[in-house]
Amino acid sequence: MTAKAPLASPDRLAAALAHLAETIDARALDGDASSSWTAKLLAKGPDAAAAKVAEEGGELADAVRRESDDRVASEAADVIYHVFVALRSRGVALDAVAGALEARQGTSGIAEKAARPGTE
To answer: What is the pTM (predicted TM-score) of this model?
Structure first.
């Protein structure tokens, strides 16, 4: 099966991700859980953030299997948002994620996975 569209518009996505990160940081600093879902989730800690990542990941998987492209995009946005909140809840900077991605550049996914301890 071939993909319908290329993964284009990296500048647009980068701008949206930067805005999202700034918004999450602002909500975390404000800490008003009564008016911010982000602050409320962060106040519950990493376990709650992890549960939301798992929930949203499942919803994305279901959407990929049987829903519209618009729904897939929406669920992917939910996953990205909750991943960012989870990272913030653990104090893991986006620069650390960027470093992990950069370290994998030029390496096949098969080779990268085989190099991880405990994987086949």
So the answer is: 0.87
Superfamily of domain 11-115: MazG-like (1.10.287.1080)
Would you list the DSSP string of 9-78? -HHHHHHHHHHHHHHHHHHHHH--TTT-HHHHHHHH-HHHHHHHHHHHHHHHHHHHHHS-HHHHHHHHHH
Burial per residue of 9-38, b for 16 or more beta-carbon CB atoms within 10 angstroms, e otherwise = eeeeeeeeeeebeeebeebbeeeeeeebeb
| Residue whose token pair is 């809840």 | 89
Residues in the chain: 120
- Interval 110-120: pLDDT, tens: 887 888 887 66
Widest pairwise Cα distance in the chain: 46
Tens digit of pLDDT for each residue in 93-107? 999 999 999 999 988
In 10 A of CB 54, how many CB atoms?
12
What is the spatial distance between Cα 83 and Cα 88, in angstroms, rounded to a whole number? 9
